[in-house]
């Protein structure tokens, strides 16, 4: 087979690279470095629509078997303490790990500080947006949101969610003993006379269910009554 180039490595940069395991971090982990029926090591080349066999050979410049000529000296790919440093001189191993290995971004990933920096900037921007919105919210609305374990992105989503305010009214009504939730979490009733208000659908959160019920014709009247009692 003639020498082939995949379009994926056209903008390749020569530099030192670090790879880290994504989940498990044993003292040592050996990644498969050659193709076999038991442990396939193939890359689908879209340029010619074929599966190409991969192999890490320390004396070859390419990780593709069809581009390796002569006797190959096989090498091992070993992560130690969850990390593998590959210097720029080992271009064949770098390309195998960064571009072609089927376990890339599944068991390990190339360490990219620029991506981590972008992620940090995005997080900071969300936090700033959340702080600005929080300052503008009314106290009751903010209290409703803060009853939920929250991250900046979720805070911004809930800030525009009408149901979170209705849910908080239900919680406040229960805390103020205006309404009562049964021990089995299935029925709401008036605390004063025990008259049933609604039944919580199976496997739904009781207060979320009541928030949805407040938006019905019957529930709206109860909601207005509770609002008056809470003032």
Overview of the molecule:
By secondary structure, this protein is an alpha+beta fold. It has 7 helices and 10 strands. Strands 6-1-7 form a 3-stranded antiparallel beta sheet, covered by helices on one side. It has a 3-stranded antiparallel beta sheet with strand order 8-9-10. Helix 3 (139-146) packs across helix 5 (162-175) and helix 5 (162-175) packs across helix 7. The N and C termini lie far apart (82 Å).
Can you count the beta strands?
Answer: 10
Q: Can you give the mean pLDDT?
A: 81
Strand order of the largest sheet: 6-1-7
Radius of gyration in whole Å, from Cα?
30 Å
Order of helices and strands: EEEEEEHEHHHHEEEHH
Helix content: 25-40%
Short synopsis of the structure:
The protein has 231 residues and is of the alpha+beta class. The protein contains 7 helices and 10 strands.
List keywords for this structure.
231 residues; alpha+beta; 3-stranded antiparallel beta sheet; 7 helices
List the topology elements.
Elements lengths: L16 E5 L6 E4 L10 E4 L4 E4 L23 E4 L2 E4 L4 H10 L7 E3 L2 H24 L2 H8 L5 H8 L2 H14 L3 E3 L5 E4 L5 E4 L6 H8 L3 H14 L1
Antiparallel strand pairs: 1-6, 1-7, 2-5, 3-4, 8-9, 9-10
């Amino acid at each position: 087979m003639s020498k082939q180039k995949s379009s994926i490595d056209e903008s390749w940069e020569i530099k030192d690279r670090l790879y880290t395991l994504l989940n498990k971090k044993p003292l040592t982990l050996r990644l498969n470095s050659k193709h076999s029926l038991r442990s396939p090591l193939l890359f689908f080349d879209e340029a010619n629509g074929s599966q190409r066999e991969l192999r890490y050979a320390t004396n070859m410049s390419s990780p593709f078997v069809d581009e390796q000529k002569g006797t190959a000296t096989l090498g091992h790919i070993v992560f130690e303490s969850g990390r593998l440093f590959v210097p720029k001189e080992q271009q064949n191993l770098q390309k195998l790990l960064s571009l072609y290995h089927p376990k890339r971004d599944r068991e390990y990933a190339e360490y990219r500080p620029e991506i981590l920096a972008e992620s940090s900037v995005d997080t900071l921007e969300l936090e700033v947006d959340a702080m600005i919105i929080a300052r503008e919210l009314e106290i009751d609305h903010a209290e409703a949101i803060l009853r939920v374990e929250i991250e900046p992105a979720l805070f911004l989503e809930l800030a525009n969610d009408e149901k979170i305010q209705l849910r908080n009214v239900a919680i406040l009504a229960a805390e103020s003993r205006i309404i009562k939730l049964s021990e089995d979490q299935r029925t709401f009733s008036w605390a004063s006379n025990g008259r049933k208000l609604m039944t919580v659908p199976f496997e739904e959160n009781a207060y979320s269910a009541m928030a949805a019920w407040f938006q019905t014709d019957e529930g709206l009247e109860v909601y207005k009554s509770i609002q008056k009692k809470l003032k």
